[in-house]
């Protein structure tokens, strides 16, 4: 089965533990090692949209993003037996056929574009295939999910969407505020995506999307990925059953041809959850101080679904969907086929 994670990672999160913020874990070099590559391959993963570039922080977004692109180019170049950079949908198929991992370069913020839409051309030439318009806060393009004004897409945002369409780059509306999301759906000439989200009808948190947003993406031919994140329940203790419930709701709203997965996490599991608790508390405090945390995060809330992680996560999800009566063809769409279809529509073969 082809498995495509619309937003995930290839890093080994255990390498972060014990490292202070501002140290190697927070530089532009991804924390990838032999174990994380082996785990991803063992899981059956075919391709993953990895976050690179500026998301939040004190660094100048544009040069920081260029450095992360250089780092990922080096990682892919140095591992030709394992990794393929994905530029078009056909590269996902090639990764599947050659038993390799397809790496999709994606942004989780467009702040690095600044006030210069021409930078879209630079990023496209460097291999970026997905651009998320906002993170949790506002930027010059529009408002994120935690921006209380909910002002919608700016004129600059519309110009950037036009440039992204022109270079066949996916417009990702994850983390966006509702008005920004709906405005971008209307503005885009190409199908758009929400690569990692939950359903607000099941859990009323800002990071989740309303039925109107989900339906708008699907009606335009786009893609919605459900995450394995705490925002699936109000108490933050989401389980695998909650992931299934949100997938089923999204299918009911969008149709089975428009729903997939965007876990928002790596394949490699945290080995020592007790040690991770200290890192989590520090990370949550930093995010809160920086104003980038979302409602539903917490110092004692894992940023993953505790019983749907590690190398068996995709197979377990497939089995749970089958137990719920979903036929094999639908499961294959959810785990990868729908993203591939969407990629063909936006990127071409």
Write a structural description.
The protein is α/β, with parallel strands linked by helices and 349 residues long. The protein contains eleven helices and nine strands. The strands form two sheets. Strands 1, 2, 3, 4, 5 and 6 form a six-stranded parallel β-sheet that branches. α6 packs parallel to α7 and α10 packs across α11. The longest helix is centred in the last third of the chain and has 20 residues. It is globular and about 45 Å long. The protein starts with a strand and ends with a helix.
User: How big a fraction of the residues is strand?
Assistant: 5-15%
**Low-pLDDT runs:** 22-27
Average pLDDT over all residues: 95
Tell me the number of strands: 9
Feature tags:
9 strands, globular, 349 residues, three-stranded parallel beta sheet, 11 helices, alpha/beta
What is the fold's blueprint, element by element?
Layout: E1 4-8, H1 34-43, E2 47-51, H2 61-78, E3 83-85, H3 89-97, E4 101-107, H4 119-125, E5 128-132, H5 155-166, E6 170-172, H6 178-187, E7 193-197, H7 211-219, E8 223-226, H8 240-254, E9 259-261, H9 273-290, H10 313-323, H11 328-347
Parallel strand pairs: 1-2, 2-4, 3-4, 4-5, 5-6, 7-8, 8-9
Compact description:
The protein is of the alpha/beta class. Helices cover 40% and strands 11% of the residues. The chain has 11 helices and 9 strands.
């Amino acid at each position: 089965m082809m498995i495509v994670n619309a937003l995930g990672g290839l890093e080994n999160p255990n390498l972060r533990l014990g490292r202070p913020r501002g140290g190697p874990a927070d530089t532009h070099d991804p924390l990838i090692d032999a174990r994380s590559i082996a785990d991803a391959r063992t899981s059956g993963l075919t391709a993953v949209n990895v976050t690179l570039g500026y998301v939040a922080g004190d660094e100048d977004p544009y040069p920081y993003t260029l450095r992360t692109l250089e780092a990922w180019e080096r990682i892919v170049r140095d591992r030709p037996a394992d990794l393929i950079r994905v530029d078009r949908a056909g590269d996902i198929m090639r990764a599947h056929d050659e038993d390799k991992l397809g790496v999709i370069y994606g942004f989780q913020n467009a702040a690095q574009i600044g006030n210069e839409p021409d930078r879209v051309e630079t990023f496209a030439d460097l291999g970026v295939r997905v651009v998320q318009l906002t993170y949790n806060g506002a930027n010059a393009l529009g408002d994120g999910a935690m921006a209380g004004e909910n002002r919608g897409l700016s004129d600059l945002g519309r110009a950037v969407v036009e440039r992204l369409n022109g270079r066949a780059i996916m417009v990702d509306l994850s983390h966006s505020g509702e008005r920004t999301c709906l405005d971008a759906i209307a503005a885009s000439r190409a199908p758009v995506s929400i690569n990692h989200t939950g359903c607000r009808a099941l859990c009323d948190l800002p990071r989740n999307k309303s039925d109107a947003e989900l339906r708008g993406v699907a009606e335009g031919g786009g893609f919605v990925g459900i995450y394995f994140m705490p925002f699936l329940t109000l108490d933050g203790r989401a389980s695998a059953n909650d992931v299934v419930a949100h997938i089923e709701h999204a299918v009911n709203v969008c149709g089975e041809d428009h729903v997939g997965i965007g876990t928002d996490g790596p394949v490699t599991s945290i080995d020592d959850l007790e040690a991770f608790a200290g890192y989590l508390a520090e990370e949550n405090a930093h995010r809160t101080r920086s104003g980038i945390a979302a409602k539903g995060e917490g110092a004692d809330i894992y940023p993953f679904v505790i019983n749907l992680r590690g190398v068996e996560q995709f197979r377990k999800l497939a089995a749970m969907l089958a137990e719920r009566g979903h036929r094999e063809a639908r499961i294959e769409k959810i785990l990868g086929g729908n993203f591939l279809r969407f990629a063909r529509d936006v990127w071409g073969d």
